[in-house]
Amino acid sequence: MGPAGVTGVTGLTQQAARAWNDCFLAGLPVAISERLLDGAREVRIEPADLMLRRQGPGSDASVYLIVEGLVRIYLVGPDGRQATVRYATDGDVIGLPPLLVSGMDIWAEAVTEVCAVRLSSRRLVALAEKHVELAWPTALYVAQQLASTNDVLAADIFLPVRARLARHLLDLAQRHPDGLLVPARHKHLADAIGSVREVVSREMKRFADERLVSRIDSGTKLEDPAELHRISTGEPTQHTAPR
Known about the structure:
The protein has helices at residues 14-22, 30-37, 96-100, 121-130, 132-158, 161-172, 186-193, 197-209, 225-232, and strands spanning 41-45, 50-52, 63-68, 71-76, 82-88, 93-94, 107-110, 114-119, 174-176, 179-182, 213-216, 219-222. The protein is an alpha+beta fold. The longest helix has 27 residues, at 132-158. It is globular.
């Protein structure tokens, strides 16, 4: 017998079953869980590979349960510039808004190697239309995503580049034995905050001069996460001259 919520469902690894029990779908009746997971498959996505992209008419939108890894969800403007709307990690589900709102243009890329369970979007919609036990948690989860997206976009609109960069460094940081490491390149960081590489490189050098970060072979190490968090709020810090 498997974990609660996935009893009788075959084909999921133990790690995937744990992610299911951490996601908003965990409380579903077993019968609905089994039908939703019927035909689901675990996939591995390499860093920088796209998981969500612009969908053509009649295409089957993708829905993923993130088992392990970090995913960036973003919008793309007419000029090609990107705006990050949120990050997703273990236990998060991505792909619901474009599935439920036809024509929504949402993109997602793997920041790290990602293990995910790809769910049948058509089956999810069909079950949600029949079972309030699935429809209501889905509506609540999408509403929570919208609130999170509003917070991110508000910060990117009103905060200076320095604060936005500090926030995204903290969002992207991964725990390693040596500390908090960010594998992203400056171009990726620039895309994440809607800026350009030259501006980000200048701010990263400033962070390094202030001993808030350091460059290592595998990326960027966060030397002072607490100070970066203070910078991310836009409030004056020991490294910020008062206005």
